[in-house]
Specification:
- It contains 3 helices and 5 strands, in the order ββααβββα.
- By secondary structure, the chain is α+β, with helices and mostly antiparallel strands.
- The protein has one domain (10-126).
- α1 (29-43) packs antiparallel against α2 (59-80).
């Protein structure tokens, strides 16, 4: 899961919660570097001095970011093997993806995308005030 100024792998469940240290995860240098570049990409979307002034992230860029996240998720799962549970929180929808008992990738939790939320807000604005 991407988060600002963090390595994008996290503990989830049990008594540990939070970011994993890169050196605590047995990944190849290429995968670790890919995760670090992905985290840097995410950081580049926020103006840390004035978050409210951060530009909107174009839909095509958000989609490319999420696709790279899926690619990295698959690489991490492959390298760590079945002794690790590796899920993926999609950045732009917060969908939670996992692998089921049959080895199939699937979303287990679905939240509305930013575009869906924006559309719902626009629709609500168009409804006349009935007071």
């Amino acid at each position: 899961m991407a988060d600002y100024r963090c390595f994008p792998l996290w503990y989830s469940g049990g008594d540990k919660v939070g970011e994993l240290a890169p050196e605590d995860v047995p990944l190849s240098p290429d995968t670790r570097q890919g995760l670090e570049r992905w985290a840097d990409w995410f950081d580049s979307t926020l103006n840390f001095d004035d978050p409210a002034a951060s530009p909107r992230w174009p839909a095509a860029d958000r989609e490319a970011f999420d696709q790279e996240g899926f690619r990295l998720w698959r690489s991490v799962r492959t390298e760590l093997g079945e002794s690790w549970r590796v899920d993926y929180h999609v950045c732009n929808s917060w969908d939670l993806w996992t692998v089921d008992e049959n080895g199939q990738e699937r979303a287990v939790e679905r939240r509305p995308t930013r575009a869906e939320v924006d559309e719902a807000i626009e629709q609500a604005r168009r409804i006349p005030d009935q007071r």
